[in-house]
Specification:
Belongs to the acyltransferase 3 family. GO terms for molecular function: O-acetyltransferase activity. It is found in: Cell membrane. One of its GO terms (biological process) is enterobacterial common antigen biosynthetic process. Keywords: Acyltransferase, Cell membrane, Membrane, Transferase, Transmembrane, Transmembrane helix. The protein is 69% helix and 0% strand. The protein is mainly α and 387 residues long. It has one domain. α4 runs antiparallel to α6. The chain is globular. It starts with 19 loop residues before the first helix and ends with a helix.
Length: 387
């Protein structure tokens, strides 16, 4: 079992990169979280309050309905990614010059954000001009400027490429990271607790949409200051995971029994469980070091950002094909689709990524924020040389 003893950085703060086991675990947890997000987005979504103008998704059996609800309730994602980012960013002390960091964040987050949202929004606009693509939540067929801007940046609702709101929000948080670090150093866990209360209280703020991102980031900063909590997670994470899964199962059952209704207690229960899931997921990550799992995560690692950014456009393509051939989720064939779809997405994105990198290495490098296979190999060589 890894510990944080002796892992303080130059400024006396915990640098997770100095702990080889934790550094490798973080790479695997990133992939695990992204795969969870992909499963969450498998259509049709069922955990949100139903649009009164749209019919509820119908499934061939109650078992499939419950499985679909559970898949959108039990899987961790966004908050795990932001906690990891906080650990990495705030652990790199002394921090590099702010201007240098902004250029790096722009390259790794904002430029890819534009590449994965602008073309997709324009494609949806073209489709809607021909009467297609009405399910995207934005009406872009008239090519009006404000709806197009909103579909890219997600100002009044999520962007057309939904997961990219996380990339946008993460970029803003990184720009604010000096302020967040200053506050956390002076108030300890207070900022995390405030964000947690706002999440559980379901306080809505335009543009942000999720306090989970802020809470995870603030927790990562606090763990840099108090890394003994990671030892606590190592020792007791299994209990946290069991508690989280228990609460999330209760939430899933409530949503199942009140399908189509926005039951507040189910959402609050799930939000509380998410915070138990953070130490639980960290603890679970130790088992990703098993040889076969480690080999799988190592293979997926160069494509992690592509899996995150490209899965929603591909989901829409495969779902439209399914509806054309089988009608809807009420068809028994949906059970096969549900289990095969994540595998199909991963395999498709891996091969499309390899093709895109071969076709235009430079453009692909911009699209994934420099996270190409060659760049990752260079970083590993540098780590070996400096280690």
């Amino acid at each position: 079992m890894a510990t944080v003893a002796g892992a303080a950085g130059e400024a006396g703060y915990f640098n997770v990169r100095t702990n080889k086991e934790y550094a490798e675990r973080i790479d695997r947890l990133r992939i695990f979280a992204v795969l969870g997000i992909m499963i969450f987005h498998l259509p049709p979504l069922v955990t949100y309050q139903t649009d009164p103008d749209r019919a509820l998704p119908v499934f061939s059996s109650d078992w499939i309905l419950f499985l679909k609800i559970a898949s959108q309730t039990l899987i961790p994602g966004m908050m795990v990614l932001t906690m990891i980012t906080g650990l990495l960013i705030f652990g790199a002390q002394p921090a590099p010059p702010y201007g240098k960091s902004v250029r790096k964040w722009t390259q790794r987050l904002f430029v890819p954000f534009l590449i994965w949202t602008v073309p997709f929004s324009l494609l949806v606009a073209v489709l809607q001009s021909f009467g297609l693509g009405k399910e995207y939540g934005h009406q872009l067929g008239d090519f009006e400027l404000w709806p197009l801007i909103d579909s890219v940046f997600g100002i009044t609702t999520f962007p057309v490429n939904v997961p990219m709101y996380f990339t946008r929000s993460m970029f803003v948080l990184l720009l604010l990271s000096p302020v967040i670090w200053w506050v956390v150093r002076r108030t300890g866990p207070l900022l995390f607790l405030i964000f947690a209360a706002l999440k559980i209280g379901q306080v809505q703020v335009p543009v942000l949409y999720s306090w989970s991102i802020c809470a995870g980031f603030a927790l990562g900063a606090y763990l840099v200051l108090q890394p003994e909590w990671l030892d606590h997670f190592e020792q007791h994470g299994g209990k946290y995971l069991a508690a989280a899964l228990g609460l999330l199962m209760v939430s899933a059952l409530i949503r199942f029994m009140h399908y189509g209704q926005n039951v507040r207690i189910a959402t609050i229960t799930a939000d509380i469980a998410d915070f138990f899931m953070l130490p639980g997921t960290w603890w679970l990550g130790r088992y990703f070091a098993y040889p076969r799992l480690a080999a799988l995560f190592k293979r997926l690692n160069p494509y992690n950002f592509a899996l995150f950014a490209a899965h929603v456009p591909l989901i829409h393509i495969y779902w439209n094909l399914f509806e054309a051939w089988f009608g809807s989720s009420a068809n028994p064939a949906y059970t096969v689709f549900f289990f095969l779809h994540p595998v199909l997405l991963v395999v498709s994105i891996l091969y499309l990524s390899k093709f895109a990198e071969w076709l235009s290495p430079t453009l692909w490098g911009y699209a994934v924020g420099g996270r190409t296979r060659n760049e990752l190999n260079v970083r590993k060589e540098r780590a070996v040389q400096t280690g």
